[in-house]
Amino acid sequence: MHVFAAIAGVVLILAVLLDAFETVVLPRRVQRHFRITAWFYRNTWSPWRKITSHIRSASRRENFLAYFGPLSLIFLLILWAMGLILGFALLQYGAGEHVQLSNEPITFGRLLYHSGETFFTLGYGDIVPTSPLSRVLAVMEAGMGFGFLGTVIGYLPTIYSSFSRRELQISLLDAHAGSPPTGAELLARLGNSPQQRLLDQVLRDWERSASEVLESHISYTPLVFFRSQHINQSWLGALTAILDATALVIAGVDELRTEQAQLTFAMARHAVVDLAQLVRAQFDPGFPDRLPAEQLAKVRESLSRRGLRLKEGPEFEEKLASLRAMYEPYAQALAQRLLITLPPWFHEPQPKDNWQAGPWDRLIQSKSLAELGQRAELRRRADEHF
């Protein structure tokens, strides 16, 4: 019985250490059938989604979803710590000899308590290991506790640094493509700039941003569940808007070159595909068409009014449909899995950008209108007087 407990303890400790190494240190996606982190997120995200479905207010629902990413990170670290404490308790139970100050019998529950105080280096001394092996195990566990705390201290700042870089680029897209961003709005605002420099620069920046999102979210899985600061923004919505815009440029927009659009499309599509696999998003052939024929006609008309002309004919439509098929199923599957709303191809009418909206705008506007009315009344009375 004690031998089996020791073997179970070794297996548990190695499993936790391997999972923590793969999640925190190893900078690549691990394709293994069972991982503690993957099991943890599968069994916590699903009930969280079910609770969210009972929240009717969109803002409250989004705020509730925003708690999952940071909380899951904290509970994942707690799960690792509990696994290590339990593993060392099993090892001590299977291979060690201990003495308690009150000479009471040593049970597994007391060894579990001893393992916890050793891991967190409390050092009460009420339970003392007496055999050489149990003392070695106690020293190893105390050292591992220090290492675990160091990992936590180094892990959290790295996570939030990657999150900040991601949100910075999403915020910059606000003035370029609207809130939420759309591909058609991005082209309408930047497609007429002299020599296409501004549009290409934004697409070049997003080529790099898409690669950073791919690298950081694969290296640090909890980032996938971190929500953006505004409820009408998301990393997936921004990537989808960029893919929509580049797909239109590649399919054919008069007087717009396609070189940079092709590079950005490739990188953004790579990110969406790999991240869909990371969260095990499921393809659904019943996903609604994001751009039916009548919607495409409206996009064409909207861009035409603002000085951009999409190419005509079946060749353009076939090329656009082929490009959309390369990324839309993955984006829609990700959106369904993460409860993120994908942006449309364009807004009708165009809502205010986030930078244009403020909590005092209505009061300031009403005050300004009142002042204008008072001035007009004073001028009218002055005219009547003279």
Provide keyphrases for this structure:
single chain, 386 residues, mainly alpha, Helix Hairpins, 2 domains, two-stranded antiparallel ribbon, 12 helices, 70% helix, elongated
Structural summary, described in words:
- With 386 residues, this protein is mostly helical.
- It contains 12 helices and 2 strands.
- The protein has helices spanning 2-25, 36-52, 58-95, 108-119, 132-177, 183-190, 197-219, 235-252, 259-278, 293-305, 314-338, 361-385, and strands at residues 98-100, 127-129.
- Strands 1-2 form a two-stranded antiparallel sheet.
Q: What is the molecular shape?
A: elongated
Strand proportion, as a percent range, falls in: under 5%
Stretches with pLDDT under 50, minimum 5 residues: none
Q: pLDDT average, as an integer?
A: 85
> Radius of gyration from the CA trace?
29 Å
Give the number of DSSP strands.
2
How many alpha or pi helices?
A: 12
- Strand order across the largest sheet: 1-2
The portion of residues assigned to helices is 55-70%
What does the largest sheet look like?
2 strands, antiparallel
State the end-to-end CA separation: 109 Å
Domain module tally = 2
Given the helix and strand composition, which structural class is it? Answer: mainly alpha
Helix-strand sequence: HHHEHEHHHHHHHH
